[in-house]
TrEMBL record:
InterPro entries: Innexin. One of its GO terms (biological process) is monoatomic ion transmembrane transport. Belongs to the pannexin family. Pfam families: Innexin. The keyword ATP-binding does not apply. The keyword Transport applies. Structural component of the gap junctions. This is Innexin. It comes from Brachionus calyciflorus. PROSITE patterns: PANNEXIN (PS51013). One of its GO terms (cellular component) is plasma membrane. It comes from the Eukaryota. Keywords: Cell membrane, Ion channel, Ion transport, Membrane, Transmembrane, Transmembrane helix, Transport. Its main location: membrane.
Amino acid sequence: MDLVRLAQYFRKPQHGFNDFKNDRIISKYTIMILLFLASISTFKRFYLSPINCWIPAEFKRYKKFINKYCWLKGLYYAEQKYESFALSLEDKQEKLIYYYQWMHFYLIVLILLFYLPKVLWDFLTIKILDFDLYNFSSALTLYQIKPCEKEKILNYLSSIIKTPEDQDSELINNLKKFYLYKSKFKNFGQHSKKIFIESDLSQKSVFNQIKKTSLILNYFLIKLINLGLSLTLFYVLNQLLISESDRTFYLREIIDEFSNGKSELSDSKIFPNLAICNVMIKEVNSYSSNHFYSFNCVLPFNLFNHKISMVLYLWILFVLIPFNLIIVFKWLKNIVFSLSNQNYNFVRDHLIPFGYLKTETDEFLLKVFSQYYLNSNGIFLLRLLESNSSYLTTSDVLSFIWNKFKIKIYN
């Protein structure tokens, strides 16, 4: 009943962690950067003049109207070597651009996209896998600030980390038999191998194997989504920001231009600083009803949009892609090649300094403990715990579970 009450206590609005500290830091700063850029973009859009068109003296009274009209209806981009009359009406329509007005909304969409993997991770862990990691983190916080509740909290943490009681009974029975009859076996290694074979046979189904690694597999899926999102955005930004068609890598363009002594980057093909706007004006004393006029306009807002995109491009290239690649390859290596060894080494490194492994039997039990009693999900939770607390806290929790495991075998 204590565990039930403790679990109910944790089921309040949660503000804890449910992921690794490094993941959370990268995600936090990515969203903060996007929020900052979106805030500045919104401010410049609504409180400063995003466009300034050159207005002839005879149209000074139309200045506000022309600026607002050009901003809303769109401008077309023409290279400086062309005069406005050198383009036909069809060419002007083809070069018409509208999207720059919505830059702050694009940034908000990016914020939602970068936040989506976290929402998906919450859904998978809580709704699908039934691992409420926020409760797990709340218990850890309570463990650190309420020593008087230490044993209850350790019981709660161990109930989440280790294999459920109804699934570890066969393993415990095999180990009890081993302790009861081990004096009859001259070859310790042969009998320990027999225990492993029986444990493997009892858990050989694909469903059991997937279930015992479900947290790792889903975490790996989320990291793949993060990596795919970063690579996709990098490719899109790279294609949009390149100003010269013969280049393939925007970073090279940045380096070349600054190394040549240019203080400003070349105009982006999607964020032109200079544009032309066609306005139809009806004059009172004119026999013809409408006249088309072309005005040269400066877009200081686009200069800022270009810099925003460049900052985002560099952040993705130098932070998000390397970080996600390292995480993906690290866990892929663990899953494919050495997951059981990694789990064993992790547990061993946390128990040896406290003198828990003194005999050959303890070493054997440790392998069973890490591979079957805790399994990959339990080790993943311990890694999560260590990432958000400390080595000593993790060792304390692991020692508690280890002692309970040995008590079950001896009794």
